[in-house]
Amino acid sequence: MAVSPQDVKKLREATGAGMLDCKKALIATDGDFKAAEKHLKEQGLANAGNRSDRATNEGGVFTRVTADKAVLVQITCETDFVAKTDHFKEAGNKVIDAILENGYTAPNEELAELLKEYIALLKENMVVKTVVVMDVAADEVVVDYVHSGIVAVLTKVKTSDTSNDVVKAFAFDCALHAAAFQPLYFDRTQVDADYLKEQEDIFTTQTANLGKPENIVAGIVKGKVNKHLAQICFVDQKFVKNDKISVAEAAKEVAKETGLTVELVDYALTVVGK
């Protein structure tokens, strides 16, 4: 039978269940509002919406790399106990399935609806907090890495031979690096101008307070800014496998070793609780 949007909305407001669940309940009960409400309660779905205002500070991360796409997802929940359950992991994989099947690139209502059955089952609020989707071109290697279920990384390396094991190992090492050092930006071009100006002002004040001559303050500040950028920008950070060189320099060494073009070109990072 046909179900009106008004009836679905009314049932949602009365039960807190998802729109799709309300529609299904009305269809299953031939439009009988009371029966539909009872049906949702029996299925444990009537309370799902009422949990939506609960804080979600725990959670887990999920990744997947296919031939042409790479996906990173963070789902939050209320307790780490739930985050470690098989049902929570199942929810994460279903969210990634939906992202790949429908071309989603950000959290949305459809993904939120998908979590409703798990919210009802696990009795905790759950939220799709982060969605990152990377395209993978024919000349790119993308590697995923998850640490302790709460840190997830994707790294993308552009190369002239995507089958080369040394290049793949470098891409994986970059993922380990990002998980360990958690860079804020890929490179200096991505650093927010306001943030950079704030740091320059702080360093200028600090240097002036040291009583340094005015004619050398600018040089000292420039050096401090460069050092700070090298700490927060991925390609400028000291490489996890060799702290004598930067990540960008490590890529050049791999290129020299293999005789291939090798360049780290992108990354994504998400950490539960941040």
Automatic annotation (TrEMBL):
Annotated PROSITE patterns: EF_TS_1
GO cellular component: cytoplasm
Taxonomic lineage of the native organism: Bacteria, Pseudomonadati, Spirochaetota, Spirochaetia, Spirochaetales
Region annotated Involved in Mg(2+) ion dislocation from EF-Tu, chain positions: 79-82
Residues annotated as domain Translation elongation factor EFTs/EF1B dimerisation: 70-268
Native species: Thiospirochaeta perfilievii
Domain of life: Bacteria
Family: Belongs to the EF-Ts family.
Protein keywords: Cytoplasm, Elongation factor, Protein biosynthesis
Gene, per the UniProt record: tsf
GO molecular function: translation elongation factor activity
The protein's name: Elongation factor Ts
Signal peptide boundaries: none
HAMAP family in the record: EF_Ts
A Pfam entry, by short name: EF_TS
Subcellular location field: Cytoplasm
Function: Associates with the EF-Tu.GDP complex and induces the exchange of GDP to GTP. It remains bound to the aminoacyl-tRNA.EF-Tu.GTP complex up to the GTP hydrolysis stage on the ribosome.
